[in-house]
Design brief:
Blueprint: H1 2-20, E1 28-29, E2 32-36, E3 39-43, E4 46-47, E5 55-59, E6 72-73, E7 91-95, E8 101-105, E9 109-114, E10 119-121, E11 126-127, E12 142-146, E13 152-158, E14 161-167, E15 172-177, E16 189-193, E17 199-203, E18 206-207, E19 210-211, E20 214-217, E21 225-229, E22 234-235, E23 238-242, E24 245-249, E25 252-253, E26 270-274, E27 282-285, E28 297-298, E29 301-304, E30 310-318, E31 324-332, E32 337-338, E33 366-367, E34 380-381, H2 394-405
Parallel strand pairs: 11-15
Antiparallel strand pairs: 1-4, 2-3, 3-5, 5-6, 7-8, 8-9, 9-10, 12-13, 13-14, 14-15, 16-17, 17-20, 18-19, 19-34, 20-21, 22-25, 23-24, 24-26, 26-27, 27-33, 28-30, 29-30, 30-31, 31-32
Length: 406
């Protein structure tokens, strides 16, 4: 009887633990991710879960298997569920050094989460005469990033195209028009490079007329200007700034349209650009890891965890628009090496390692030919006959192309 009672107590405890367990954010793309106070956060996005408004955190550094992470649910943000990864209204978010999370875009325009009250607020900032709430609402494209000071937040919107800065301490917002950036571009990537002074950078993007390969540095006044061309025109990229350089994880490359099916290259290289040595142009971080470590996914959430050199990449959508990912990757921006414990053990050992040995030195960063880094180019246009609208899944688009060619 005593043994039975003990087993029953263990079983009841297990059931209670499972009942209290919070499932993770699930497979999703276009989520906003960031780190704060020893936690990794995932906010919003589109994916396999019905609730696109999720807001969750899990302790960092990660321990154990990916599937065993201990997630905590936080209050849902005040917005609509996004029907598609790059359909209007899009959104972005950034957090400041006090832990407040600021939401930009969607139908709401502006909202922020205060960890002190564990609640969202839609109280508007004080706008300078040049900007208003209408500049943030229902945008084709919006991206944001926080400065090294931890309080200034850069926001870029494309309909109409404007660069804005939020002083998140004093809750004031200023902004200027960026007329040279094509209106209604979406799915561009952005971060703030830690130069002196800091430089907000935005790269890529697309419209129904084609893709952009241009990178812009942004600023108030007349500081916004194109400064470089990506090795390939693309959208849905992820941009991570670290020290004085930034790394671009490629998104959907324009060359996929002419590469056949499946598209090639299967694992595109990552790009790296040093803002203090611009004449060197682009370098590459060769993708020697194999498909398990950087598959072709776009709309990946990416962030550098505070007080580390480690970038965390979460989720994404496969380029065929048929599935989402819930995989977490870690990449060391100082060594250009993938970091354990993720990718998950079932994906095999990290690159440059054996099953039991320490990481080995990875091949050095290579250079891209000067012809691909000689300065900004005009947005690349695509024959409308072979253009896939961002709202059309790749597989459906390809089947249509094959039908028309038959």
């Amino acid at each position: 009887m005593a043994l039975f009672a003990s087993l029953l107590a263990i079983l009841l405890a297990l059931v209670a633990a499972l009942a209290d367990a919070v499932p993770g954010p699930g497979a999703r793309a276009h989520s906003c991710v960031f780190g704060y106070n020893n936690d990794f956060y995932v906010l919003g996005g589109v994916g396999t879960l019905a609730n696109g408004t999720i807001f969750m955190k899990t302790p960092y550094p990660f321990t154990g298997a990916e599937e065993s992470l201990n997630w905590t649910s936080l209050p849902d943000p005040p917005w609509q569920t996004i029907p598609w990864v790059n359909s209007q209204p899009t959104f972005s978010c950034s957090n400041n050094r006090d832990g407040k999370v600021f939401l930009f875009g969607n139908a709401v325009g502006f909202a922020y989460y205060d960890p002190a009250s564990n609640a969202w607020s839609t109280t508007q900032p004080t706008f300078k005469p040049s900007v208003s709430m209408s500049n943030l609402m229902n945008q084709s494209g919006v991206a944001s990033a926080v400065w090294p000071d931890g309080y200034t937040i850069s926001i870029f919107v494309s309909g109409p195209q404007m660069y804005l800065e939020l002083d998140s301490q004093n809750m004031t917002m200023d902004g200027v028009s960026v007329p040279g950036f094509k209106e209604d571009y979406g799915s561009f990537c952005m971060d703030v490079v830690k130069t002196t002074p800091p430089l907000p950078v935005v790269c890529g993007g697309s419209t129904s007329m084609g893709y952009s390969d241009t990178c812009w540095q942004l600023g108030l006044g007349n500081l916004s200007t194109p400064f470089a061309a990506l090795p390939e025109a693309q959208d849905a990229c992820s941009l991570i700034a670290f020290e004085t350089h930034f790394v671009v994880w490629p998104g959907f490359l324009s060359t996929y349209y002419s590469a056949g099916f499946p598209p090639k290259p299967i694992n595109p290289d990552m790009y790296i650009f040093d803002m203090n040595n611009r004449s060197n142009g682009w370098g590459t971080i060769p993708n020697v890891q194999g498909s398990a470590y950087l598959p072709i996914y776009d709309y990946i959430g990416a962030t550098v965890m505070p007080n580390t050199s480690t970038a965390v990449l979460f989720g994404g959508q496969d380029i065929f628009s048929t599935s989402y990912s819930s995989v977490i990757y870690q990449f060391n921006l100082s060594t250009n090496l993938w970091v354990t414990p993720f990718p998950s053990p079932n994906l095999g050992p990290p690159p440059g390692t054996s099953e039991s040995g320490p990481p080995q030195k990875k091949s050095h960063v290579g250079a891209i030919s000067a012809s691909k880094s000689s300065g900004p180019r005009a947005p690349q246009t695509i024959d409308p006959k072979v253009y896939r609208s961002p709202q059309v899944p790749y597989g459906e688009w390809y089947a249509q192309q094959q039908s028309e060619q038959a």
